[in-house]
Amino acid sequence: MRKRDFLRWCTAGMAGVCGMRPLTGVLRPEIGAWMNPRPQGEDLWKWSKEALFAEHVGDSVRCLKCPNGCVIPRGGTGLCRNRVNVRGRLYSIAYGNPCAVHVDPIEKKPLMHFLPGTRAFSIATAGCNLACLNCQNWQISQVSPKETDNEDLMPQAVVDECRRTECASIAYTYGEPITFFEYAYDTAVIAHSKGIRNVWKSNGYIEETPLRMLCKVIDAANIDLKSFDQSLYARLNAGQLQPVLRTLKVFHEMHVWLEITNLVIPGWTDDLDMIRRMCAWLCSNGLDEAPIHFSRFVPLYKLNQLAPTPVKRLEEARSVAMKEGMKYVYIGNVPGHAAEHTYCHNCKKMIVERRGYSIVTNNIKKGRCRYCSAQIPGVWA
Amino acid sequence: METPFGMLTATRLSEQITLFLNNVPVLVGGDVQNDEEIVHLALAQRPAAERVLIAGGNPAGLVPEALKYPGSRITCLEENRWLRKVQTGYLPFPDADRAGYIVGDLRSHLRSNERRYDVIILVAPEPASLQANRMYTRELMELAHNRLSRTGVVCMALPSSAEYAGDDAKAVRAILRNTLGAVFNVVEILPVGRDVFLASDSSIRTDVAAAIAETGVQTVYVNAGYLQDDLVAARSRRMVASLPTSTPINSDAHPVLMLAQMSYWFRFFAPDSWLPALVFVALLLVIIRTDRISFGVLSAGCGGIVLELLVLMIIQVAFGNVYKLIGVLIGVYMAGMSLGACLAGRVRVSARMYGVAQCGLALALLLSPLIQPTLSANEVVALVFLTVGLFLGSLCAGAIFTLTVRMAVADPVSRGARLYAVDLLGSAIGALLVGPLLLPLLGIEAVANAATCLVIVGALVTLTSPAWRAYAKA
Fold it and tell me: Which residue ranges in chain B fall short of pLDDT 50?
């Protein structure tokens, strides 16, 4: 190599290093990850617990918690980002490390027929077993717990905090509690023993065995029934419809108080015929008394180019649902709408008047309509 | 409708009117939640406000809310006159004695208007572009501060960070909080439907539901039914505690908020980081393989386009848009290149002439950021200087190309083609790197200085090459 070529290469190298400095500020996390890849499961951190529901497949492990059925090789991670295979065993890395901890009115979940007027101590870790295009909590659902700032809150501490904040229930919510199943379950067991209720806000994408185990400690659930079409479930949510329908039936069978949320997205899930078929299915499977919430879509995440749902469309969906036989149909995310009150399915009178998440008047006495004495389904105390 | 600000579309879905700008919804009719939030969280702070300025947003929704406070005179300002025209057709403004509507640049309005406001509400899109970023800079906040009464309040909002803000979302909020904090004594963030920022030199109430209740104003959403003050306060404390305390301040010359917002947007798609690294390595290889003569042309091509981008950005920041002047500026740039190339064909080719051309371009780059502060003082004079500087810089860039081609006496045809390609490559590199990345990352001054260094290095590399020495001997 000639001296001049050597000097030219050195100058270019120095220019490259200087030029990289501002870029590394932007790319540092990725470069750091590339140069020092995360252990990917070979090292467990404090917030780990051996996972329930797994089977060995050679050196790999198949997770049996949800229909994704991830086969995780040694050192690998599941789709939900919360399951890791360490030396041939499956562990959860979302145990005692919630990234979101808040107190919410129970009506925000939304749960309108479960302990109205109370507050829920709400927790979530990162991770999710679906990938919805419109995810409101994508910053926690589409990442691993190792990428979020977490609190150190083991199950007993969750219960202690719930009591300190005088909440009537603990809600496993925001992200997807199926992905932190062991943490939620252990917390629910302790809470249950202390008389604190447990609320499950979920996409319902779970296998039957863990679900039945969960039902023994969960008191109420709100399940997102995102659509009633398999291909939509695949395109919009990267999931499947049938497991969610099974979840609804199991909750009903196990007498867990159930409410259902359906997000009406323009151009995606706002087809009234599909809504009609969905409600027909719910009624034919004994779920006509499960309150259903038609929620207004707002532009978010990867669907931020769509307009919000017109209120009239939500009203049409409500009308369709009630015609099919659903007894309690609410409209969510539309402040001040009349459909946020509760009306007796029998005499049609307003029995719970709400203003947002607050109860203005409550005409349910001992679980019955004050006007016609009809039994109003729900958990009122 | 095609407008200089982008494609404007109005749609009706059932009863709902939505206005889209470049396929993103910007205004939704009947959006009670958003309209109430931004107005009442601000006006509940100063219910006796006499003068209120609302910049941006949907007056059809915002003005009726503001009019609930008796005694307030509302001024609605919109910068995009085409948007205002479409709004008038689809979302008509309430006809009220206490409300007035004007079209114009917010900064010009704040500079020229002597009267003071009690509340200024800024409704802006996310700071994902230089134009939008103008609504979030220290310079604008200082202007607003100067036009506020002693207890005046500024209110603006970002989309909700929901239950958890990731690092990028935190960076955006921290930069905005610190930018407001650099101007105002008190800054509060209220994570309600959106993340609402309130700033004032006087106190700010965070118990907004109670504050609104005290005013007696009737609202559908912003009340104790939906906003429970203790829970909002807890979320606010949690969010503020999680934000980094030390961040750069967002300014016109250094739009760091725009970069943070772009980084946040990229998270949606989690792009592979190997791609920008690969592009950078590819560019480096191209530069390394360029011979010394061509390197001077490449650096001049890069410097020329950077000069144009800097001038465009300075004008964008000062006036809010460039659509009126972009044709003139591009024409001036091309005219300069053309004249420079032509003149360089008539002079004797020498190292001195080449050096002068490169230095001329470097000087134009170095001086361009200095014009920016004078734009607010005297627009016409500053614009003239900018245009002349752009012309002279591009003249030098054009001259460099011709001088270099003429020097290649051995093989002028293929050398000319190669140099043309290298010149364009330099322009492409400058445009790709500087616009979306280096300008928001480093700011105007640093980019100008870096481009100046590049041009000078290019000149030195060329002038010390054996080819120049051989030409000089010949």
Answer: none
CA distance A254 to chain B (A): 30
pLDDT surpasses 50 at A37: no
Measure B328 CA to nearest chain A CA, in Å: 33
Cα distances (angstroms) measured from residue B364 to each of A76, B3, B183, B303: 55, 32, 33, 10
A102 contacts on B by Cβ (under 8 Å): 163, 231, 234-235, 238
Two tokens at A124?
Answer: 């979530």
Residues paired with A123 in a beta bridge: A101, A172
Contacts of A358 in chain B (CB under 8 A): 224-225, 228
Q: What is the DSSP letter of A175?
A: S
Provide the pLDDT for residue B398.
93
Cβ contacts of B12 within 8 Å, gap of 6 or more: B18, B90
Q: Which residues contact A83 (CB under 8 A, 6 or more apart)?
A: A51, A63, A65, A70, A72, A77, A90, A91, A92, A93, A179
Residues 318-357 of B with CB under 8 A from A: none
Q: Would the ipTM clear 0.90, i.e. be above it?
A: no
- pLDDT (average), residues A276-305: 96
More confident residue, B96 or A258: A258
Angstrom distance (rounded) from CA A198 to CA A173 = 11
Q: Quick: pLDDT tens for A304-324.
A: 999 999 999 999 999 999 999
Is B226 near chain A, with CB under 8 Å? yes
Q: What contacts 24+ positions apart, CB below 8 Å, involve B368-371?
A: B368/B307, B368/B310, B368/B311, B368/B314, B368/B444, B368/B448, B369/B253, B369/B310, B369/B314, B369/B444, B369/B445, B369/B448, B371/B314
Stretch (H or E) spanning B402: helix B379-407
CB-CB contact of A220 with A200 (8 Å): yes
Residue A38, pLDDT score? 44
Side-chain half-sphere CA neighbours of B174 within 13 A:
17
Write the residue in B224, B284, B441 that is nearest to A16 by C-beta: B284
- Report the run of H or E that residue A330 belongs to, with start and end: strand A329-332
Q: Could A25 and B276 be called an inter-chain contact, meaning their C-beta atoms sit closer than 8 Å?
A: no
At A120-153, the pLDDT tens digits run: 999 999 999 999 999 999 999 999 999 999 999 9
Check A25 against B163: CB less than 8 A apart: no
Task: Report whether B75 contacts B102 (CB < 8 A).
Answer: yes
According to the model, what pLDDT value does residue A244 have? 98
Nearest to B18 among A174, A307, A357 (CB): A307
Asked if the C-beta of B32 comes within 8 angstroms of chain A's C-beta atoms, the answer is yes
Cβ neighbours, 10 Å, residue A134: 21
CA B18 to chain centroid: 25
Contact A72, A22 (CB under 8 A): no
List all residues 6 or more positions away from A163 whose beta carbon is below 8 Å from its beta carbon. A194, A196
Residue type, B389: G
| Cβ-based burial of B283 (10 A; exposed 0-12, middle 13-18, buried ≥19) | middle
Residue B408 amino acid letter: A
Distance CA B63, CA B329 (A): 39
pLDDT at B465: 86
CA A297 from chain center: how many Å?
16
pLDDT confidence bin for A32, thresholds 50/70/90: very low
* Residues forming a β-bridge with A303: A300
Position A31 pLDDT exceeds 90: no
pLDDT for the residue numbered A34: 46
